[in-house]
Specification:
alpha+beta
Amino acid sequence: MFIVSYDIESDNTRTKFSTMLKKYGRRLQYSVFEVKNSQRILENIKAEVEHNFKKVFTNNDSVIIYGMCEACEKKIVRYGYPVQEEKNVVFFG
């Protein structure tokens, strides 16, 4: 899993950035997203940051991507999340 944390000054840029991250993961807190551990997804996020956001970032903006190893993921303690959010659910229609 990857944790993406951001602090972006511009409301417009921040909204666009969070909308982009919603395609890849789920919001944990206002400016923190959890993303599944996939090298392809990480590369997609980095490419979007490079091509769509880096040019509009100011010196006051920051984005940090933390990689979590599988052993580290097992040590995460969560409070306040509904049980169904912790499970992968597949619907067939």
